[in-house]
Amino acid sequence: MNDGTKSRSEERTRKRGEVPDQLELAGGMVPGSAAIVAAATGDSEAHAYGVASFYSLLARPEKKLRVCTGLSCRLRGADEVLSAAREAGLDAEGYSCLAACDAAPAVLKGRETLPEVTPEDMARTGGDWQQLVSSSPRMQTVEGAPNWFGDVGSYDGPLVFDLPAGESEDTSALAAAAELGTPGVLDAIEASGLQGRGGAGFPAHIKWRAVAGMPAAPHFVVLNADESEPGTFKDREVMMRRPDLVVIGLAIAARAVGATEIYLYLRGEFTIPRRRIEATLARLSAAGHLDGLDFHIHEGQGAYICGEETALLEALEGKRGMPRLKPPFPVEHGLWGKPTLIHNVETIAAVPFIVLNGGAAFRDLGRGEPGTKLYSISGHVGRPGVYETPLGVSLDELVELAGGYTGTLKAFSPGGASSGFLPASERTRPMDYKHLADVGSMLGSSGVVVLDDTVDLRWSALEQLRFFEDESCGQCAPCRIGTRYLRDAVDRDIAGTRLSNGEAPLTHVDDAAWQMVEGSICGLGQIAALPLTSARQHFPADFPSDTPPKDSASPSEPEATK
Asked: Where is the domain boundary, 357, 390, 407?
């Protein structure tokens, strides 16, 4: 193949990556949009249609109001808000978690997330969705655009992110990284013990060294800002309050691994964080701090599965976001088949501190495991928000920062929906990777949801099962069939309907859970049963018609989807 042909081939491949953006410009999955996008990208109409049908924001463009019906929002009145919307004549629908669990109930208006929307707010629209305005005191207008912040806090000690201090744009870490050079930066990341803060907890330095050492060119850096794990909203606040840390961390990472192109994948509902990131990029670029680096911002179109790193890569390449089989891993075969470093927002935002202060300084901040940690906390606490503490604090310590319990603690999820439920007896357990894995749970994305004793855990498990059923990409049978089977089993159990052979509805859910753990391609299918299996294990009284779960170990912690 000659260079000219290769260049044209690469150009066509890159052009396909524009398909989701072009679909959004064309109005989503509306008549004629596939043909418009095919003409603009050189791709087929069939491919454009397939992509449009995969992503919720493209597949249902007529839905302008989406009320979050995640667990935290339902605890705060989301059902009443959705009913009020429909009573007002609005074509509203329930929607997956909007990463606004601290400002529940949240509503997506077009692509803008509104906090703390009330039934009265819906009634005042007069049936016109464009008239919806949140009456929340959080709302403000910045440069003519709606803006709002969540609550943040921290313990009394050294901080890596210091969200309460707000944006600083201190660029000294860039100079420090240049002085250290690639070997020094890689050594600092290794010495820090930094683990991926998106869910899996994989050692960051292994990824960095792998990408840096790959002979294939070019190399890419990708930011995973598709924060869609129910109960999680920390990355939203990092991008809002400290976008400088994100951009500077990406620049340091790119130069260390030999990349000149950086892709930021932000979930489509993150309109306000995107504006903050874009403004920071513009300022740092104008000052010459990002010379030699090319930043691309890609807007997600509504798919939880794209938090899984290989599904995210598929989305960046303009395809449906379906996870790839691994190996090969992205460090070898990532974006467009090239070596790629992927990190989530919190992970990359820790890099400037490590470069400035040394790996040991970061490592020493944790309790048993390195660093501080950003915990999102919502549910039945006095002040839901994002709190920075040493990695490994207990639930009681975290809730004390968050204004205390607002009822009698019954259960909590320590790491988003993917981590299942733990009983109140685990309230003093260190919330880190090891100690949570010891009880069959996981730190995951550290999205902590607190439930008081008014909550039925069978109902809570059902809410999480519905989410995973809706968000399964359908690629592999264990997940596609298993998520539906588990949700149907709990529906039947609540209704008192037995199986056709007379057995109790939950008789075979443990077998289905095992099949999902062992046979699913990615983390979604591997953890989707955990809300149900953990609820049955720890709260049998909430499943009065159930037989005791089988005496088997809880599923081991899989690679998280976030």
From this structure: 357
